[in-house]
Amino acid sequence: MEVRSENSIQVRSDKFPSTVIPRTRLQVWFFRVCSSILLWTCLVHIVAVAELWHPRLLTGFTSRISWITRPPLRLQHSLHSPPPLVPSRYYRSNGFLKVSCNGGLNQMRAAICDMVTVARLLNLTLVVPELDKKSFWADPSDFEDIFDVRHFIDSLRDEVRIVRRLPKRFSSKYGFEAFQMPPVSWSSEKYYLEQILPLFSKHKVVHFNRTDTRLANNGIPLALQKLRCRVNFQGLKFTPQIETLGHKLVRILQEKGPFVALHLRYEMDMLAFSGCTHGCTVEEAEELKRLRYAYPWWREKEIVSEERRQQGLCPLTPEEATLVLQALGFTKETQIYIASGEIYGSERRLAPLRAAFPRIVKKETLLDPAELQQFQNHSSQMAALDFMVTLASNTFIPTYDGNMAKVVEGHRRYLGFKKSILPDRKKLVELLDLHQNGTLPWNDFALAVRQAHEKRMGQPFHRRIIPDKPKEEDYFYANPQECLCEGTGCEDVLDPGKSKVTMTAGEQL
């Protein structure tokens, strides 16, 4: 009599005609788990193939599966699959471009955009850029410490091939040395095609050891101008750590109401570089002068501070910024976020500003010290947090038109011409001096300040072009007009007459 049970296996062979081997519970469990995994794997592949062939074929079925397998709300964001990659561009590379970006975060940001554009123009393979570690702030951050390197590579793969590092055959370990040079500043498409491209035939790898303002503002083909924008507004995404904390800062501020982002560029490096010492003590002025002489790349040494201030070449002091904000109509109830590093003179210089605007905050006061710990001694990462807040602010006001002010201004234009009040410092110094010496009463001073800035609020206008004087013309990244009128007529968007914004007394944000 042959007995079969649920937990047995019947084995037949010539030697053992009929042998029954007991099956353990563990084997049964293992068999069932493997079968389930196999079935689900097959099902997922069938659904994926069906979606690829005909997206609507299994809509009802896949929706039921997603309903069953949908994670809790708190996990959906983290489990969200990334968008599909754009198809990679196929081209024969003419060589490898290695670049070292110099300056602060936003100077490097603009340089990265330019270098991607140059690589596209010359059909080069770009090595992930190196970032400045030798400037005044000596930030040790690498590219991947600030920007999402995988997103950078993947999001631009249809334009440029980007690699993390040079192939081993081009390593110094094997005796190879790249040809190093700084490109000529404000250069055109013709310069790169005629003078730079031939270098790659000879050297295979060219290292641009300075990259600030190496591509012209104007006279560049429209497709390349749009690529500069694409890198800036889409390709350069901050790391998840920076993005998470930046979004938290914005959320905290927005929960308290509208806010102004004041980029108070009154930091030691800026004052030493510009030679501006208005409002400083004699000892502070001497300290700044010694610092200027200590850095060889700050070439201009002998500077007359007051002359430079009268020319509008100095950042507004905290005291001057206080009067200007009040004249523009901001009140004690205005929430102001200070976007900057350490203010020179610290709380002593901030006291008048804080007295006039008690709702002044900084990232250091809004966040727990432990949250900022990972960014300490990394000035570019701290600047990235400020960058995110300035983009989200209701009003942006820079006290100096440095790289951050210009790049933020252009980005806010791209986001829909968000309000940015751009101080006319030369005019303001004149008005401030007249008011402070008693010549200009407060009401007249406030009216004059508002009238001087009616057309300096980030509204659309054409970029100013000055042939043969690229340093004096409008900066591309402050007003990337080629990228601001998708789907509309550029002339309609950029006509100042159709975009006039009038500021009245008491208007806050």
From TrEMBL:
Gene3D superfamilies: 3.40.50.11350
Residues that span the membrane, as ranges: 29-53
Coiled-coil regions listed in the entry: none
Key words of the record: Carbohydrate metabolism, Fucose metabolism, Glycoprotein, Glycosyltransferase, Membrane, Signal-anchor, Transferase, Transmembrane, Transmembrane helix
Pathway: Glycan metabolism
Entry annotated with the keyword Ribonucleoprotein: no
GO terms of molecular function: glycosyltransferase activity
Membrane topology: Single-pass type II membrane protein
GO cellular component labels: chloroplast; cytoplasm; membrane
Record GO biological process: fucose metabolic process
Localization per Swiss-Prot or TrEMBL: Membrane
Main location: membrane
PANTHER family named among the record's database cross-references: OS02G0726500 PROTEIN-RELATED, RHAMNOGALACTURONAN I RHAMNOSYLTRANSFERASE 1
Family as reported in the entry's similarity comment: Belongs to the glycosyltransferase GT106 family.
Protein known as: O-fucosyltransferase family protein
Native species: Gossypium hirsutum
